[in-house]
Amino acid sequence: MVKRPNTRKIVAKSYLYLILFLMYLPILVLIVFSFTKSVELGVWTGFSLQLYKDLFANDSLMKAIGNTVLIAFVSAVVSTLLGTMGAVGTFYARRRYKKAVETATQLPVVNAEIVMALSLAVLFKSLNLSYTFWTLLIGHVVLTVAFVYLNVKPKLVQMDASIYEAALDLGATPWYALFKVVLPEILPGIFSGFLLSITLSLDDFVITQYLKEPSFETISTYIQKIVVKHPIPPEVRALSTILFLVVLGAVIAITVYNNKKATKVATMRRK
Amino acid sequence: MKFKRKYLSFPYVLFLICFIIIPVFFIIYYAFTNKGGAFTFDNLLKFFSDSTNVNVLLISFVYAILNTVICLLIGYPLAMILANKNYNRSSVMVMLFVMPMWINFIIRTSATRDVLNWIGISTGANSGLTTMIGLVYNYLPFVILPLYSTMLKMDKSQIEASADLGANRFVTFFKVIIPMTMPGIVSAATMVFMPTLSSYVISDILSEYNVVLFGSYIDLYFNQADWNFGSLMALIMLLLIGISVFISRKFSKDETGGRTSLW
Amino acid sequence: MEKNDVILELINVNKSFDGSIVVENLNLSVQKGEFVTFLGPSGCGKTTTLRMIAGLEMPDSGQILLNGMDIAQLPPHKRPLNTVFQRYALFPHLDVYDNIAFGLKLKKVSYQTTNKQGNVITKTRKYTKDEIDAKVKKALKIVDLESFECRNVTTLSGGQQQRVAIARAIVNEPEILLLDEPLGALDLKMRKEMQLELKEMHKKLGITFIYVTHDQEEALTMSDRIVVIEDGVIQQIGTPLDIYNEPANAFVADFIGESNIYVGTMIGPQKVRFLGTTWDCVDDFEINEKVDVVVRPEDIIIHSPNEGKVKAKIVNKIFKGIHYQFTAMVGNNEVLIQSTVDHPVGQDISLTIEPDLIQIMKREYTANIYEDAYINKNNEVVFAGASWACDVTQLVEGATLDEKGYFITPNGKKYDLDDIDVIATIDMKDIEISDNLEEGNITGQIIQMVWKGDHYQLIIRTEDEEDFIVDTEWTWNESDTVSISIDSSKIKLKLKADLSKYEI
Lengths: 271, 263, 504
Known about the structure:
- The structure holds three protein chains of three kinds.
- Chain A is an all-alpha fold.
- Chain A has eleven helices and no strands.
- By secondary structure, chain B is mainly α.
- Chain B has one domain: MetI-like fold, CATH 1.10.3720.
- Chain B has twelve helices and no strands.
- The C terminus of chain B is likely disordered.
- In chain C, the strands form eight sheets. In chain C, strands 6-9-10-3-11-12 form a six-stranded mixed sheet, with helices on both faces.
- Chain C has four domains: 152 residues, P-loop containing nucleotide triphosphate hydrolases (Rossmann fold); 67 residues, no CATH class; 104 residues, CATH 2.40.50.140; 136 residues, CATH 2.40.50.140.
- At the A-B interface, helix 1, helix 3, helix 4, helix 5 and helix 6 of A face helix 1, helix 3, helix 4, helix 5 and helix 6 of B.
């Protein structure tokens, strides 16, 4: 093979790193200035962990973080259950039913968040329901459930369709067959659906803003309320650093897991 | 009753009907009734007779188109480099480009604003520019993923065939590579265009409310408790989404774009 | 064999999917220890029948008796039968050992014990680990995979996966082992090997095998009895030898082995005319009855031009390893001949056939007859889901139609034919088919095609499950969709009842 001119490689790599740098710039600035005491962004007044102390002292922000995790986790669990059952049940249904469910599943995927939020708000208003944790939970499940379905479905398609029947044939009850034979096959899809649910829910602002109880704040709504009029509060810089590290940790864990899976030796030893 | 596997899907289907399908009908109902609940076309007429409304929609279109084009212009070469084995072999690099998406959206967007202000680009004075930067910054990852995955699937021998048949690099790029990656381009464009139109937080924060996109506008009416007119605009939004989905389906078979393959 | 040897009995079993009949009124009994094969082309209902026995489909009506007990509506996990699936259906997340042990871990065995009161009672328990271990090891030994216990099933070759699938089924000691085209995914060499092994296993285990295949050679080599199924209906049940030598109808003759099928006419006791000559045969039918004649290629003897019964000319030759296969022409009829003696293409020859090697069968179809046809108000005849232009004046000799379309008989009476019931008959050669779907009155799919020496006989099925039998000289493909048209003068009509009710 002809060796490509080195300059092209340099140009390509520089472009790659330039864009990467620009994309991370705002976060990096927050991270750097999280280690100083200055209230104003961009002013370095010496190394300090004061903002981290402030962060943990800020009760309402800590409460918002707790709420964010709570709603993300609960909605992801509900979505994973609903979406997985939906995908499995629909997979074994007749073609026309399947098509109808699949079309309906596309709706929340392509729909704008604001339209979904509004339509639910209109529904709840018409039913004279006041906003509570439950309305917010419904909103987050609406946002995420279709993605669980769409993550589980390909695993079902890849699966040998007759293993369920084979299990019945060998004496398993339908439930036993579903749990012991079908479930292990689609578990990776369920897991990635769950993770996607969590990330979508953690990041959500629009649906949360519309459907939450007024006193209930998540990270997004708490910060949004401040930043529409003011710069980012100093202790949120500290929060950003922590969030960045958590995400980085998750990415590294997933990469390591994927690499391990890819290089796993085909033969497994028993006992 | 005998157990059928289909029954497992009933809770999901019930949920879809109650909280996804029925709410759409509520929107339709509100859009064509007045505050008293009587049937009317007034909301529709009001929307198209007031130039402010139509202007907001047009401006949103301009921003959405610009954002789509800029994201594609930046993202396409980027995806090509990422998918080219001579320049990049690890999927970790791709992960790095996607990772910002997982840091809280509000923090990301307000950090962009604060940094822009810090380096001297005032969001109050350059609201158009800063809104654009915020939009591109937010949507670029959505473009990179679908483009990257179509380029990975691309058959290298066709590019070699094109070179073998005497095409130079430019001809190969425009006549072979671009058409072959069209499904990726279309799905990337749909993932940027409609969300931009319906976004509102980004422009609110980055333009200090100087730029009003269609999403913000709908939000405005709902906040003023004009549910009927707000519903009509939400319905228009839904219609536009329907049209864009229809158009993108014509070009690409990939139904979910890159959004489900984030993990 | 005695009646109490019957292990499985299917009585009037019917099954349809979305309105189309897949299995129709199926009756069958299987003896204990037998190797029975369901043979037929794909989509004939053989797999559905097997799945109904396994419990994976429930029949719409009819009984399935296992040792005299009706199990038709019993779920699969309650039936003492096990299946080897088409593509093995191994559980990918379990290794070889756990795949085979899957059924054993679920199984309950009954045992007798004495309770505190001293009474003997029957209890059930699960197999112990050691029992399972012993059984799995034994099954692995039977399928020759002794050292494979810990292997991941996804790393096995097709043949090995097949063996695991068999072991997984037989380890449960089922009363009947059901095999659904188990060798279909293997290459030819592997398939031949497995055929012998399966046969061997059947002998050793002594359990009843029900085997489904579309491969006639496989069926002939392995089975004790073959059930030939076509279009959801059993065509013939018999030993491989019976089926080959005495096919019950043209379909079976065509499907099993190579055969020459002709339309013949009985012209006397044990005399049949086909290929332009009268032949002696051993079957008796009514004189002048049209019959199907089947002759196997290896049963035709080649002679020099004047020694045989009928003159022929060789037009094609293929060497098949141990014999030559010739195509000869007798007039317009093709004759397939197998011989170990070589003859050059173009040679004039003559042929003889031994009387007992000429198979004569009642013709299944002599014409298309629609008993439930009726005339509509446009004086068209309606049958098979379409309306057809026809000549209604044939209903009464000398009748005419007036300008308004009323029917005038020679004695001057006037009738409105609308809704009158008739029987419509169309000869098989009078139906025109076309691949231009706009051309005909109705479209259908070719579901069967049999070569009859100088023409093909097709069965075309419409969406409403109406069949047209068509003789044509043209080659079509099975499952082609075609349109059907009939010349109005070729539709023969007969009144079903007296006309008088329709007089006006």
